[in-house]
């Protein structure tokens, strides 16, 4: 069923192109917004407009949004390299390999943690949308490392609240280009969808509050190994914040990394690993902490740097 929306153009979008304004207001890609306008699903003050028209603050928009695409139903599918670190009746902690998402999503045809657990006979909590039951946090497909999944309904509720209230200790290691100055610091910058509407995220005024703490572990000639502690868990947060400081994660071409350096180090994805995860056990109320070693590709990249 289509979704009819009516509202004024916010002051902050004064002078923007209509397609860009629609994309920002409704979280769409620029292409999808342009298609809505071309198909006659957008009126400005009751009149059809062109996607390149500039909008005025306060102008009245009538927009017909198409129904959101339906996420695929999870199916049991073995995931090579998905390692169980810890499991009990309430939770399972896994070490996620590269090229695997947390749960099935629209447009993704590869493996997921949820489907891998199903294939292993693990029963997860039924809370949440059908395609992401038991999932309380996520890692990008090409970010490796630790994830906790809820098996019981109590664990799901408690862990979701813990992540929301920022009481979970999430530590990552990342190899970034150059040398951050200062060597230790905090990046406090709001994140929202990139204005280009191309799937990227960016530091954007008025975005969601996002806080990243970093500390240099080891410095090399052309790169630095950092420990990252997240206060918030925005999509692509580490990648966006490091790129915004002009020190993108090595191999992260989506956010401006140097492909020459990545090739020299043999890195085929962003050098980013969820190395440590700590939280209060949701039913036993004791602190638990888990660690994950670097995967082979990331370890090899460090070896190359240390030999230079």
Automatic annotation (TrEMBL):
Active-site residues (renumbered): 140
Catalytic activity: a uridine in RNA = a pseudouridine in RNA
Cited PROSITE patterns: PSI_RLU, S4
Domain RNA-binding S4: 16-74
Example GO molecular function: rRNA pseudouridine synthase activity
A Pfam entry, by short name: PseudoU_synth_2
GO BP term, pick one: enzyme-directed rRNA pseudouridine synthesis
Keyword vocabulary terms for this entry: Isomerase, RNA-binding
Record EC number: 5.4.99.-
UniProt name for this protein: Pseudouridine synthase
Organism of derivation: Actinorugispora endophytica
Taxonomic lineage from the root: Bacteria, Bacillati, Actinomycetota, Actinomycetes, Streptosporangiales
